[in-house]
């Protein structure tokens, strides 16, 4: 399967999408800080590979406040078994909600795995799609986000109209 690539302009900077005919493999921000000037232009519509068009459409709907739950097909081959378990729990933390790393570890039946949950969250290959930005510290503090804490804060504020704490 051939990897395809496209860039989506977002309010948080360019988001690179990679995928195959089977589904999305990666969605990641290309710059570490919100507001960082970019020399990367969005991939023109006619040049977006077919396998990434639905992902792009759903992300645009998300940023347009028209979508709260992603349904794109995924084709993630990376990650350990534990990381994949953590990533699979992330969509259960719905739009406008947050959960702590401890709550995720408990959900997985391993309350001692808080740091491992945090590490897995940091390796999430599908930012926003698998909403690791909704996972916060036990006391409500923002900790860790591969895209930078400013982006995590922005995403949580963006979802704030219905923001509620506590998990699944």
TrEMBL record:
Methylguanine DNA methyltransferase ribonuclease-like domain sequence ranges: 7-75
Entry keyword annotation includes Transferase: yes
Catalysed reactions, semicolon-separated: a 6-O-methyl-2'-deoxyguanosine in DNA + L-cysteinyl-[protein] = S-methyl-L-cysteinyl-[protein] + a 2'-deoxyguanosine in DNA; a 4-O-methyl-thymidine in DNA + L-cysteinyl-[protein] = a thymidine in DNA + S-methyl-L-cysteinyl-[protein]
Listed Gene3D superfamilies: Methylated DNA-protein cysteine methyltransferase domain, Winged helix-like DNA-binding domain superfamily/Winged helix DNA-binding domain
Chief location of this protein within or outside the cell: cytoplasm
HAMAP family linked to this entry: OGT
Note: This enzyme catalyzes only one turnover and therefore is not strictly catalytic. According to one definition, an enzyme is a biocatalyst that acts repeatedly and over many reaction cycles.
Function according to Swiss-Prot or TrEMBL: Involved in the cellular defense against the biological effects of O6-methylguanine (O6-MeG) and O4-methylthymine (O4-MeT) in DNA. Repairs the methylated nucleobase in DNA by stoichiometrically transferring the methyl group to a cysteine residue in the enzyme. This is a suicide reaction: the enzyme is irreversibly inactivated.
Stated name of the protein: Methylated-DNA--protein-cysteine methyltransferase
Organism: Hymenobacter endophyticus
């Amino acid at each position: 399967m051939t990897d395809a690539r496209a860039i989506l302009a977002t309010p948080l900077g360019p988001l690179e999408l990679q995928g195959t005919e089977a589904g999305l493999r990666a969605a990641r921000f290309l710059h570490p800080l919100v507001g960082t000037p970019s020399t990367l232009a969005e991939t023109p519509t006619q040049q977006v590979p077919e396998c990434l068009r639905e992902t792009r459409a759903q992300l645009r709907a998300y940023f347009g406040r028209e979508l709260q739950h992603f349904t794109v097909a995924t084709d993630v081959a990376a990650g350990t078994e534990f990381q994949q378990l953590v990533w699979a729990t992330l969509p259960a933390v719905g739009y406008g909600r947050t959960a702590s790393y401890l709550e995720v570890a408990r959900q997985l039946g391993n309350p001692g795995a808080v740091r491992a949950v945090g590490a897995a969250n940091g390796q999430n290959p599908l930012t926003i799609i698998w909403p690791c930005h909704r996972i916060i510290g036990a006391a409500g503090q923002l900790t860790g986000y591969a895209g930078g804490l400013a982006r995590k804060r922005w995403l949580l504020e963006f979802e704030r109209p219905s923001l509620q704490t506590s998990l699944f």
